[in-house]
C-alpha cells in the first residue's frame, strides 16, 4: 500500500486553472489579478476621492437633481435588465452557437483555460447592455476592488487564432443576475477613457470566456448599493423580521435607497459584501492584532478566561443564567477575576481577548449583550501609573497604526458615515485629568445643567460627552484619561488611594487608584490598581454591602489567602467601542460582526 | 491649566528601582535578571535533564529508598520551618538591629536601592537555615526559572562600605513562608558547587536586602512540588469541593505527594505556578498564534462568530439554552454557519478563534462543555483537496514549529506526563487514507473485534485508536488524514462526492468530500466541502430528516438563496485536543486554563 493514497482519487469537479498550484504559497487577498497587473504593467492604481464616491454610489451633495435622475435611470435599467434575465434564463445557451463552451453554467468536467490571459473569480456587481454586440460588467473582488469587464462579439468570420465571442454570448453575460459569482478569462486592456465607476479605473478586462459558478436570484433582498449606504434606523423593534417584510423603507433624496438595520441584518450576505462593511471589519481585526502584538512585545502572555462560570461573581444582576446539568451556570461579564488568578498563579503580565456578556435590557447605541473584551493585568513594580501609562500606550499605538495602515478604508467609512478627523495627542502631550479636575471643568465651563456635579459621584453619559467637547476645545485631543475616580464609582476590587486619604482633611472624598480612558467623549477603557491583600479585599467587599462568603466571591477572596499575590493592576477595553468611536460610527452595532441586542439574536 | 496634570499626583506607594523606567520598552519575560546576567557575565546557562528532574522533585525511579528518605526529610524540615515561622512572624523585625531597614515588610515610603547590585522580584519557593549566620532560599521567576539565594550575616564590626546583614535578618529571611512574593537586592556570585536544585545552577545571589511584598500563609493548600506532579485522579465527582476538604490524597511511592484534579483546581494559584502548567499554557498560546499567522500569510481574514445564537441551528440536543429577555438564546456549538455567512458575504478565506459550547453529559478525558475552536473556511477554486491540503499544512506547521520552539518545555511536560516522541510525516510523505481503506485496514489487520466494521458507518473511538496504532506501525506517523467519510457520518451541509456516486455500482456507499485528521489515534479536526447551492442543501437537510423551515435552518438556507455563494469548504480544530494529544497528556482537561465539565464550573 503506498503512503500517499490520495492522488488517484482526485477528480476535479470544478475548474482547472493551469499553472496555478491548488495551494499557492502566497495567496494575495485580492486574488490573482493585482499581482498579474503589477507584473505585466508595473502600475499602481490610485482612486481619487471623487471616483470613490462615484463607485460608492453615495454621491456628494452637488448637482442633486442630475444625480437623482441618474439614480432613477440606473434603477430602471436594473429593473429592465432583471426582467430580461427572467425571460432569458442564464442557463439557456444556444446550442448552435459557435462560442458554445466559452460561457454558461460551470460544467462538471474540467475546463482548461488557454493562453496568457487572466483568470478572475469574482462577483458580477452590475451589467449593462450597450448593443447587441457589446456589454459591460463590473467585477468585484474581496474588499473595495472593482474592475470593468467588456464583452464584444467578434466580427464574422472570426480570425483563426482569436477567441470567439458570439452575440448570444454577449446577451447571456449581460443577463447574469447581479451578485452572481463568476469566473472569467480576459485580456487586460486600456479603456478608451478612465472607468470612473470602478476602483481600477485605468484598466479594463476584455472578456473572452465567462462561466457562472453560483447564480444570484433575479430579485435581491437588497442591493449592494443600499448595503453600502448608511443604516438609517438602528432600532430593532421587530424581532426577527424577514427579508422583504420591511424592505428598503427610507429613500434618501439622492442616490440609491438607504435601509434600516433590520433590512441590513436580514440580508446579511449582501450587507457583508458592501465595501464599507469589509473596511470596518478589517480595521476591527487589525485593532485586535495591534493590541496583541504590542503586549506580546512587552512580555505579556495571552490566556483564555472561561465564558461559563459557576457564580454571578462580580455582583449585579446583569448576568445571563442557564440550567447546567444539576446546577446553574452564568455567562462571564468580564475576565476580571480570571486575570487576577493568572497573576496570583505566577504570571507577571497577562492579556486576554474574549467575548463577554451583559444581560442588560439597554437598547442604546452603546450597548450590546455580547461583545469582545480586550483585557490585561500586570504586576505593579512601583505604582499604578505603570498600568495607566501602559494602557494609554497600547491605545495610542492602536490608533496611530490604524491611521497609518488604513487611510483608504477610513476615508471610505467616512464617505458613508461622516465624522471629524480624530485628534490624538502628540507623544508627551497626553491629557490626564484628575476626576476632581474633570468635574471642576464641567462645573466651571460646561453646560449649565452640570454646574453642580459632585466629586463623589460617577459621571453620567451626558457629562462624559460634555467633558469630551471641553477637552477637545481646550487641549485639542479626542483621547484623554480621567484618573482617581471616587470609590463610590468603582467596584470592590479597586484599590483605594491610601496616600491621598492619609493626607486629606476629614470628610474628604475617598478616591481610588482607578481611571477611565475616553475617545470622542465616550468611555472606552476602565482600569486601575486592584487590592492584593485578602483582609483589605474582604473589608472593601463588606463596605460595598456584599457578603464575602457569597458564591463566587468566596473563591475569589480565597485565592488571595492561598498564596502571596504581588501588587497588580490592569484594564479592560471594549473592542466594539474603540472601533465605533474611532471611526465616528453612530452605534457599536455597526462595528460588530453579528450584533447582539436584547431584541436581536439573528443571524 | 497645564496639559499634563499627572505627575504632581505621583506618590509612589511601593518600591522604587532607580534607573529602571516604569515602562521599559523591552520587558523580558524573565524579568531583569537574565539580561543583567548576560551583560555582566556573558553566559548562557544550561540545565541537564537530571538537574531538571531534581528541580521538579518528580524524581526518576533510581535509588528509591534514598529519594524517599530525602523527600521525607525535606518535608519534615519544611514543617519545622513553618512551625518556626508561626512562632516568629515575618513582621517581627528587631528594633535595635543594625540591619534594620534592609529587610522586612515592604514599607509604604519609597525605598531607594543603591549600588550596582541586582534587584529581583520573585516568588520565594523554599528556604533552608544552614546556621544562625546563614540561610538559603530558592527564588522563582515566571516560568521554569529558579536561582539560589544565600544570605550570610556579616562579620562584626562590618566594613565601612559593605552592606550589613545581621543574624536576625538571616532568621527573618529563612522564616518567610514559601510562595511569598519578595523583592531582593543581591550580588551575583559563583556558588562553591553547582546548585543542582535550581534551573540556574552556575550562579547564585548573595542577598543584601530583602522585602516581603505579599506574604503567603504558613500552611499552603498544596505545595508547588505537588502542583508540578501529574494529576492522579481526573474525576470531578465532588462538585465545588473546597480546598483542604480532600487534600493531597494519594502519595506516590517516591517524591512529593501527587494530588487529584479536584485538589489542583481548588488550589488554582498554586497549580498555575507549577512550571509544567506554565509550559503547557505557553505551548497552547503559541499553537493559537501559529494557526493565526499561517493563515494570515495566506490571505485569510479573521472574523468573530457570536456565542449567543437565536436557534439550536445545527440540530442535535447538545445545546445550552437560557432565557433571553422575551425569547430564548442558545450557546453556539460551532461557528459553522457563520463561517459560511462570511464566504457568502464576499470573503474568499476566513478563520476564527472562539469558544464553543457542548451541553453533553460526557465525563471523559476527551470532552469539555466549553473549549476553543480554531476554524477556517475558504473558497474552493478547483476541488476540495485544496481545503484538505491547507488544513493538513497548518496542522503540520503548528506541530513542527512547536517542536522547534519549545524543546525545553516539551521535555519538562514529558518528565511529568511521560509520552512517546511524536512522529510526523516527512514533507511529501503525508498519509491520507480513504475511509474505506481505513476500515479495510482495521478489518484485515486490526484487533479481532473490528473484523466486521462497515464502510457506511462512522468510526468509534476504540476503532480510531486501533487505526492510530496500525498507521503508526505501518507508516511511521502519528498524524494522518482519513478522507471521504460516508454520508451517514456527516452533517447535512457536507457535500456528497458526486463523481464517485456517478461512477459506482448500484447500492454503493454514498460518500462525502469530507475528512477527519488524527493525532495519536484521536480525532483533532473535521473538515470538507460544503454544499453551496440552496436546492441541493435543502434536499440534503430533508434527507437527514430535518425540516428546512425549522428555526435557524431557515435563515441558513435563506442566505444561499439571497446571493450566489462560491464553492467553499473548511474545517474546525479543537485547540484543547491538539494541545493534549500533541503533548501526550491523558486528558484535554489538563490542556485547558479553566476546564469546564458537566460537574465543574469553578474556579
From TrEMBL, chains A, B:
Compartments reported by the entry: Cytoplasm
Record's keyword annotation contains tRNA processing: no
Gene Ontology annotations for the cellular component aspect, listed alphabetically: aminoacyl-tRNA synthetase multienzyme complex; cytosol
CDD domains recorded: AspRS_cyto_N
Gene Ontology BP, a term: aspartyl-tRNA aminoacylation
Domain Aminoacyl-transfer RNA synthetases class-II family profile: 283-603
Alphabetic keyword roster: Aminoacyl-tRNA synthetase, ATP-binding, Cytoplasm, Ligase, Nucleotide-binding, Protein biosynthesis
Keyword Plastid: no
HAMAP family: Asp_tRNA_synth_type2 (MF_02075)
Family under the similarity heading: Belongs to the class-II aminoacyl-tRNA synthetase family. Type 2 subfamily.
Protein known as: Probable aspartate--tRNA ligase, cytoplasmic
Species, as recorded: Podospora anserina (strain S / ATCC MYA-4624 / DSM 980 / FGSC 10383)
Amino acid at each position: 500500500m503506498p503512503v500517499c493514497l490520495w492522488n488517484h482519487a482526485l477528480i476535479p469537479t470544478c475548474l482547472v486553472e493551469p499553472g496555478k498550484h491548488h495551494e499557492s504559497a502566497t495567496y494575495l487577498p485580492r486574488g490573482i489579478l493585482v499581482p498579474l497587473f503589477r507584473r505585466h504593467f508595473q502600475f499602481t492604481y490610485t482612486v481619487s476621492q471623487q471616483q470613490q464616491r462615484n463607485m460608492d454610489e453615495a454621491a456628494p451633495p452637488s448637482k442633486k437633481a442630475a444625480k437623482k435622475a441618474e439614480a432613477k435611470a440606473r434603477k430602471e435599467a436594473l429593473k429592465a435588465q432583471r426582467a430580461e434575465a427572467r425571460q432569458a434564463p442564464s442557463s439557456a445557451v444556444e446550442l448552435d452557437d459557435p462560442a458554445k463552451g466559452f460561457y454558461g453554467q460551470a460544467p462538471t468536467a474540467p475546463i482548461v483555460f488557454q493562453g496568457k490571459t487572466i483568470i478572475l473569480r469574482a462577483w458580477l456587481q452590475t451589467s449593462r447592455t450597450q448593443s447587441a454586440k457589446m456589454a459591460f460588467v463590473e467585477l468585484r473582488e474581496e474588499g473595495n476592488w472593482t474592475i470593468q469587464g467588456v464583452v464584444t462579439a467578434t466580427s464574422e468570420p472570426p480570425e483563426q487564432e482569436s477567441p470567439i465571442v458570439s452575440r448570444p454570448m454577449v446577451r447571456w453575460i449581460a443577463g447574469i443576475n447581479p451578485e452572481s459569482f463568476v469566473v472569467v478569462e480576459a485580456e487586460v486592456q486600456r479603456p478608451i477613457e478612465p472607468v470612473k465607476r470602478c476602483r481600477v479605473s485605468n484598466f479594463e478586462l476584455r472578456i473572452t470566456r465567462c462561466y457562472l459558478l453560483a447564480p444570484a436570484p433575479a430579485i435581491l433582498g437588497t442591493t449592494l448599493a443600499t448595503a453600502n449606504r448608511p443604516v438609517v434606523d438602528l432600532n430593532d423593534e421587530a424581532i426577527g423580521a424577514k427579508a422583504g417584510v420591511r424592505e428598503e423603507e427610507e429613500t434618501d433624496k439622492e442616490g440609491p435607497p438607504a435601509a434600516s438595520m433590520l433590512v441590513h441584518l436580514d440580508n446579511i450576505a449582501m450587507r457583508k459584501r458592501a465595501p464599507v462593511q469589509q473596511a470596518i471589519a478589517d480595521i476591527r481585526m487589525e485593532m485586535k492584532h495591534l493590541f496583541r502584538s504590542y503586549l506580546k512585545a512587552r512580555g505579556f502572555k495571552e490566556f483564555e478566561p472561561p465564558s461559563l462560570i459557576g457564580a454571578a461573581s462580580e455582583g449585579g444582576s446583569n448576568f445571563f443564567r442557564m440550567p447546567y446539568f444539576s446546577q446553574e451556570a452564568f455567562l462571564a461579564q468580564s475576565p476580571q477575576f480570571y486575570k487576577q488568578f493568572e497573576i496570583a498563579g505566577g504570571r507577571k503580565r497577562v492579556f486576554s481577548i474574549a467575548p463577554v456578556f451583559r444581560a442588560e435590557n439597554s437598547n442604546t447605541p452603546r450597548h450590546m449583550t455580547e461583545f469582545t473584551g480586550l483585557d490585561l493585568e500586570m504586576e505593579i513594580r512601583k505604582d499604578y501609573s505603570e498600568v495607566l501609562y501602559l494602557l494609554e500606550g497600547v491605545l495610542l499605538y492602536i490608533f496611530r497604526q490604524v491611521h497609518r495602515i488604513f487611510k483608504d478604508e477610513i476615508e471610505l467609512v467616512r464617505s458613508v458615515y461622516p465624522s471629524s478627523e480624530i485628534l490624538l495627542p502628540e507623544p508627551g502631550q497626553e491629557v490626564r485629568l484628575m476626576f476632581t479636575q474633570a468635574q471642576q471643568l464641567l462645573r466651571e465651563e460646561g453646560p449649565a445643567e452640570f454646574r453642580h456635579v459632585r466629586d463623589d459621584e460617577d459621571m453620567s453619559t451626558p457629562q462624559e460627552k460634555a467633558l469630551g467637547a471641553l477637552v477637545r476645545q481646550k487641549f485639542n485631543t479626542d483621547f484623554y484619561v480621567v484618573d482617581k475616580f471616587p470609590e463610590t464609582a468603582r467596584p470592590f476590587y479597586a484599590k483605594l488611594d491610601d496616600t491621598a486619604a492619609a493626607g486629606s482633611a476629614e470628610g474628604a472624598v475617598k478616591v481610588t487608584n482607578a481611571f477611565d480612558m475616553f475617545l470622542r467623549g465616550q468611555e472606552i477603557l476602565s482600569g486601575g490598581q486592584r487590592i492584593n491583600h485578602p483582609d483589605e479585599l474582604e473589608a472593601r467587599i463588606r463596605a460595598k454591602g456584599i457578603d464575602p462568603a457569597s458564591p463566587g466571591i468566596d473563591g475569589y477572596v480565597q485565592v488571595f489567602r492561598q498564596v502571596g499575590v504581588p501588587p497588580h493592576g490592569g484594564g479592560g477595553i471594549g473592542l466594539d467601542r474603540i472601533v465605533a468611536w474611532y471611526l465616528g460610527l453612530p452605534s457599536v452595532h455597526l462595528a460588530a460582526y453579528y450584533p447582539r441586542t436584547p431584541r436581536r439574536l439573528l443571524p
